[in-house]
Amino acid sequence: LYNAGSNLLILSHDTRAQRFVPLAGDGVSAMAASPNKRYLAVAERARGSAKPQISIYDVLSMRKRKVLVTPPHTQQTPPTREFVSLCFSPDSKYILAQASGPDWTLYYWAWEKSKVMASTRIVAPTHTNVVLPPSVTRVSFNPIDPSLVVASGQGVLRLLRYQEGQLRRIHEAIQPPHQNYITHCWITAPPPVATTAHPADRSLPSNAGGPSGSAAPPAPTGSPRAYLLLSTADPRLLLLDPADPDHPHRADLVLPTHPTTSLPLPVYALHPTARGILAGCSAGTKVLTCRLSPSPSQLDDAHLTPVMHSFHSLPITGLDTCVRKPLVATCSLDRSVRVWNYIEGTCEVAKVFAEEAFSIALHPSGLYVLVGFSDKLRMCCVLVDDVRVVREFTIRGCRECRFSTGGQFFAAVHGTTVQIFSTWTFDLLATLKGHSGKVRSLHWSSDDSKLVTAGIDGAVYEWALGGPKRDSESIVKSCNYTSAVLHPDGRSLFAVGSDRTLREIVESTVVREIESDVVYTQVAASHNGKMLFAGTAGGCVRAIKFPMAPGDTKSVEYAEHMAHAGAVSRMRVSHDDQYLFTAGEDGCVYVYKISDKEGRGKREREPIYADEVRGVSEGSTLMHNWLTVNKYCMLNVEDLSDEV
Asked: Is 2-190+224-252 CATH 2.130.10.10?
């Protein structure tokens, strides 16, 4: 179970199938599973003036059982935007919910009755000039004594006990103002043994932290106890005994190390299992796990095991697909470029660069990617395990680039101008001037004879590349256009921008204006001309009724799907009209299966390519240039000719 955008996803490890559960809030801030594995608690952020809520789902049916909402706030308790941590009690009847700042209130809920049993403020108000103000990141129940709860975070470590309808702090002497506790977990250990060892020599009980080569301990006395294992940002692991919390001890466990630097990695997640303590850490954008052990020789053979392939950690700025392979390429502000296989649902190759990436274009063959970085535009070759740069262009901060339908040209935005290059020789063929503001969208016609550009100056231009010359134009000064597409028939185009209006433009004339209640950020059309899609600033994807009726001049029917927790930044349709790809500012990529009323993305005609592409298959001199650029790919010439 995990969340992506505005959906809760259930992933089957066996079939790799995903099940989506739409959420009503503005994204997920915390989740928790009950110890009996029957219930799932999901904290949804507040949207607009609404309150954040906690939804309790039945795991088997994924139906919502309860919805918990915080009590009305007062002047002393300002409204809360989200919950940062959730935890079920050992008997699954109660829930701890830690609210975010500025009040940082901890709620103790009897969730089946929707009743707040107790609440208390964990963090006292601080001055705004504090560099690292106290904050809470995790709360939990003691598995042996459910009346004891703990809250930890930046400069916070609080032990509280639920008594007489109140959460009362115990052990007031704990004052860690400069310690950053990342996470914690409870470890159920056998009863303490009779020993005369000095308290400073105490460490994690041998059978609580993994295998140990020491001899069997003496016979235990008393009842089982629970110890608190804390992970700090130093990084360190500390062990705390609730009976003596003023003297935490260093846990005798080996921290995982970075694969390349060999430095200890901070542990962001801890989970006790029958085989030891499972630790989760992060190396860049990879989520890794290992089992902690008292000695390096007793660690798992793999030391660090990736949970799954890495994802983007910052907003996605570019997305594109190709014809020859089932691939999608994305780039992000996290400086990484990733190529995904959307059929198998895997990441084929990923590479992190030194500069931020603003745009990406994938060649129809799937063998090249064109990436616009903050310093230069780079042509890269997609290898089995690498994305290798083969050519650089002096275009800084390229916000949009696109290969032509046939792949023989590519267009790149350079501020207010658009430059067109030859893919085979890298020669600059034309420079399109006319926009007074930055260009934000490029779209080639199916036969590569036209190019549509749209910018924040409110202008949409259609260029005939034979000259080249401007074939048609439409200017709306009140709109900052972000996306425009040309209909496959080449007669009309659709554009969206900041004024919440979808416009249809035919021969420089706006023939239709469809107003909306949200801002459209992206628009995409299927290759068969029978489907139209739009992405919104709220993260929704709308399938618009198409073709539109003659009377649909102000409004149109659509089916809306909640997808991203941020604005939709890019949208593409696969060449066979079977899939819709969307990327958002939340760092997620969604793949939709699409169909029309007559069939699933069936194409009625083959695409028309320009003469330059047919020249490649006929063995012209352009073939030599192709193979020179692609010398790292080890292609077979006959295969290349057949494919092209």
From this structure: yes
